[in-house]
Amino acid sequence: MTGRKRQPGSNQAPLDEEGRLRGDFAERLVREFEQQSAGWFWEADEHGRLRYISDKVARLLCAPGDSVIGMPLTALFETAEGEDAGGRTLAFHLSSRTAFSDLPVCSAQSPDHHWSISGRPILDRLGHPLGFIGHGSDLTEKRRAEAEITRLALFDALTGLANRQRMQLVLQQKLSQSAATYRPTTLFLMDLDRFKAVNDTLGHPAGDELLKQVASRLLQCVRDTAVVGRLGGDEFQIVMSGTDDRHAIGALANEIIQSLSQPYYIADTSVTIGCSIGIAIAPADGVDAETLVRNADLALYAAKAGGRGVHRFFADKMLAEARHRKRLEDDLRDALTQNQLNLVYQPIVGTEDRRIVGYEALLRWTHPELGPISPAVFIPIAEESGLIEPLGEWVLRRATEAAAGWPANVRIAVNVSPIQFANPELPALVMNAIARSGIACDRLELEITESVFLGDESGSAAMFARLKKLGVRLALDDFGTGYSSMSYLQKAPFDKIKIDQSFVRGAALEGSRNPAIIQAIVTLANALGMDTTAEGVEMLDEIDLIRSLGCSHIQGFAFGVPLTPIRCGCSSTAMAASPRWSAGSRRGRCATRCCAGRGWSWAGAPATSSSATFPMAARWSRG
After folding, report:
1. In 336-456, which residue ranges form alpha helices assigned H by DSSP?
2. Could you tell me the pTM of the whole model?
3. Other CB atoms within 10 A of residue 338 CB
4. CA-CA distance, 24 to 41, in Å (whole number)?
5. d(Cα 575, Cα 70) in Å, to the nearest integer?
6. How confident is the model at residue 24 (pLDDT cuts 50, 70, 90)?
7. Cα dihedral sign for 506, 509, 511, 516?
8. DSSP class of 80
9. What is the side-by-side order of every strand in the sheet holding 77-79?
10. Which residues of 259-297 are buried (b: 16+ CB within 10 A; e: fewer)?
């Protein structure tokens, strides 16, 4: 038994005792192995019925008090679904009496348990089968880990929704249906409106909680009719098949927008956001995933441009517009180096003495083929493409250089994009432009819109402090059109409030409520020690009204269209501006030619020689 040769006359008892001890030791090793590791042993007879199996596995295969001994191995284990067993099952190996190794199986009663088993046939001396013997290893935890890895790879960890990769697989699967079973597929692409403001003001934990609640509402809206995914950030996607009825699809989109626009309660705070949706339907809007996603994205862009909080279906013209925007973006990159950009300057006039106190620099682009391109078109393109930074620096440098040729009491106003404002290098760029031009710091006025406050609040405060430390003036542009929070005026050191032209237009008409709004803004600005500029003044009656309401400055076509001077031509230290007007009603729009120098002064009174009316438009037109 031990393999030693027996000696004549020796005592057999010590050998038997040694064998017993070795057997006990081997049994303890087996028991220790079975208890402390993922491995186990099994044995079956020639018919495949169990004769032995480790206790820890037996307990998983039957109810307490029952026994698996004598049961067919194939009744207890089955090849795991989806596993590659080389086309050969456990039953095949047992019936053919062939050895097998690392065969993946699961419990026939509990598919959540997974094992890998190996075995070989036992033969007698004549080669007759006696049964099988083998071992196994528990794969349950490994499979759970693999499933978790798969889940992390295909599902969003925060919301539990499908992630970008899984949504791509789902969309491709829907679009690859055979012609006989093909069903229309609809793709919704969604962006949350005002989510960034929540993230910035309440913090990222609040933003994460908001995304979870958004995911829950989306699932409630679509129920079991579609697959919902989060692509990243605040971007979500829905893939739905079965209908191309635009009325039904639009109704679902409106339901989603309505649901997501209801208040959320996060950290004892009520939060309200919105949602914009772009929709593309296959096969009409694309037969492959890439095309359908592109077209849904174009529809989403149109929804955002349409005021947000709406949905848009893809239309062919959107693709044409996108290609046009791409062309403009490419051409805008060359515009700086090819001398296609220029600045024009619009006068800013004091209401008390009608003297020009400054100019606002406005960027213009003349395309070599398309002609003049509106700033309303190319400025958003510049912001989206990242070109606004070099454009803004070019404007700042050229405007200050132009102001260097003007009288020392005339300021230059330059618009600053929120993207520029977020650049930590902005103060250095401003100081560099001032130093190159040689103008006094307080002659430069930076016009900033309320949208800069929607970013990092502490960062905005630090930027305001750095700019103010340079000595430049700060103006709050387009006041009244954004959030118009009084906290902005409290936190930021503005020198001026610019009243948006939407309040000026029609203010002189009977019954208009705009004068009351203008009066309130002027009163607030006066209390805070700030100047006020009314933008978009085009009528003579508006001039009188704005002056009577106490506004300190006027800007608009009433005192000249923005023109490009060779130099400002302001050789006189006494610069007064006369309103441009058209013959007839004082409420008619001002004429396109300046009346300065033609015997007309403010309110239509004849100008005297002492008024020193400055013929700005005439001088610029010659330039």
Report:
1. 375-385, 388-403, 418-421, 426-437
2. 0.62
3. 10
4. 17
5. 111
6. low
7. positive
8. P
9. 50-53, 39-45, 129-138, 114-123, 100-107, 77-79
10. ebeeebebeeeebebbbbbbbbbbeebbeebebbbbbbb
